[in-house]
């Protein structure tokens, strides 16, 4: 959605290594914002984005207008289940993945890539898009790329620009708690006990916590023990006017 940072550029560099031609789509998608969310104020700097992409060797930027993506009479929606209805982001933003699936489906059909790179920071989105491509028989391979982080451990995000100085100092707590919780679970601690401790620590530094959950890394179903499959820890919390998400594997 533009407002590019080092995390986005890491996706481009991975694509550059994996493909002969690299296309980047930029589209701030109105259908994935609720009326009370930050569509109007979402950071945009298209000229800066283009300069950054040119520097890392992108071959084409596809930046359609809203009118091109949603012309008069547009009447199709994608109804989602599975990882899109896991009770994570969908519980707090019920409109979100329907908008994501529609726009990503259109962008993949328009650009027809052999593979598409999505960052793991938006982990539920990655699982939704992977399921979308599989279920609709899209001839694209979805590839997840590791989350890029600031030196403090804070996951890179366009919304980090909203953080005040004090909020930015507190924000790395999310990653520290994820790491401590993952280490505890890997070391044999009960999942819920580790997460309960982490929830207290996150709220102590000033976050309003939406969730800190352990889920099956592929299906996003709730998971109670390490024997239940690969584990992904996911967190979402608000500080000031900024909502941050992060995740790591156990």
Describe this protein's structure.
The chain is of the alpha/beta class and 250 residues long. It folds into two domains: 6-145, Rossmann fold (3-Layer(aba) Sandwich), CATH 3.40.50.620; 158-249, Pantoate-beta-alanine ligase, C-terminal domain (Pantoate--beta-alanine Ligase, Chain: A,domain 2, 2-Layer Sandwich). The chain contains nine helices and seven strands. The strands form three sheets. A three-stranded antiparallel sheet has the order 5-6-7, covered by helices on one side. A two-stranded parallel sheet has the order 1-2. Strands 3-4 form a two-stranded parallel sheet. α5 (96-111) crosses α6 (123-135) and α8 (173-186) runs antiparallel to α9 (191-204). It is globular. It starts with 5 loop residues before the first helix and ends with a strand. The model has no long low-confidence stretch (mean pLDDT 95).
